């Protein structure tokens, strides 16, 4: 079989790879390869599905706002219900909430917080703040929208196709992905928890990316908040919960370093969380319907890494999205499209100053 030829090979079929594939398809010939038999199998099917414009370091806040705008545009043009309004309430001590709330969250009185989140026990928090610009997102629908839009624009998507070998001759990559040989001018590393490993395979130095475990569960509860209620998170990162169509989504908000892999909950993690939530809420959790763990992968700065590797002209990073992969997805795909094609941001409807600032903030930096 002769090699598949393309301008850009994207490695990884999660939200990062798929959103770039759909953004880039009108400009370049693109192939996307995914190790697993299904797209979005790893972290992208394991998130809390919330887009929070006040959450994250400054470049992330900006990319989140841009993503919300771009998703609004997609919703208007396609009618797809990609997002629903869902506020975010932060609770904790005065200093804890002050430290986390940033300038974009509005402080709530204790009574206001209890009114909005009546499942909280009054003694469980001293201070609260709210972000009302947040939305919940249907991540399955979003992934499928990008898959379809990319395919419609000619992107070839191969699943069950792990990249196992890569060679660069100074102008062209020769890649082995599953049983296929592929040639490409540029390789995009959107391999999530495996991104540093994929770089190594390509002879590129790592970015110091660390996969961090985070567990979540859907539970049934006697006093479940109705759909449309806010997501509630502890400022000390000890829990969050939000209403879900199947019950309540809960998480212990842990960030434990792990190896890349098919992460699973540790025995006892969900039980300890239920005990903790029993102390701070009246949720009255009765049954665990399902639980899972995903890997939020980030570099030390907590800022995603997007751009051509400084030591390799054919290697482009699209990794380190940490806990912000969905909320930054369209903004990052737009930025990556500008950097990969050299397009004028204004031609994409983007603000050149904003794109320039994001490119500088997210650029790959060699780790010593
Ligand atoms: C519990 C939890 C809650 C979260 N909540 C939110 C939230 O509310 N909002 C938000 O914005 N984000 C959230 N996140 C973070 C978000 O899910 C991630 O940032 C995002 O999914 C990362 O997407 P990705 O495409 O980079 O990685 P992935 O989805 O992991 O995709 C990478 C893909 O690359 C593939 N791959 C790896 N190596 C190879 C190879 N050699 N060849 C081919 N393919 C390869 C993998 O199989 C994988 O499918 C949460 C994460 C967790 C775990």
Structure in words:
The chain is of the alpha+beta class. Helices cover 28% and strands 30% of the residues. Strands 5, 6, 7, 13, 14, 15, 16, 17 and 18 form a nine-stranded mixed sheet that branches. Strands 1, 2, 9, 10, 11, 12, 19 and 20 form an eight-stranded mixed sheet that branches. Helix 1 (15-24) packs across helix 8. The radius of gyration is 21 Å and the shape is globular. The N and C termini lie far apart (42 Å). The protein binds flavin-adenine dinucleotide. Flavin-adenine dinucleotide is lined by residues 11-17, 33-36, 41-44, 46-50, 162-163, 190-194, 198, 214, 216, 251, 294, 296, 321-327. Flavin-adenine dinucleotide (FAD) is lined by residues 11-17, 33-36, 41-44, 46-50, 162-163, 190-194, 198, 214, 216, 251, 294, 296, 321-327. Keywords: Oxidoreductase. Residues 7-337 form the FAD dependent oxidoreductase domain. One of its GO terms (molecular function) is oxidoreductase activity. This is FAD-dependent oxidoreductase.
Give descriptors for this structure.
single chain, 368 residues, alpha+beta, FAD/NAD(P)-binding domain, D-Amino Acid Oxidase, Chain A, domain 2, 2 domains, 9-stranded mixed sheet, 8-stranded mixed sheet, 9 helices, 20 strands, 28% helix, globular, binds flavin-adenine dinucleotide
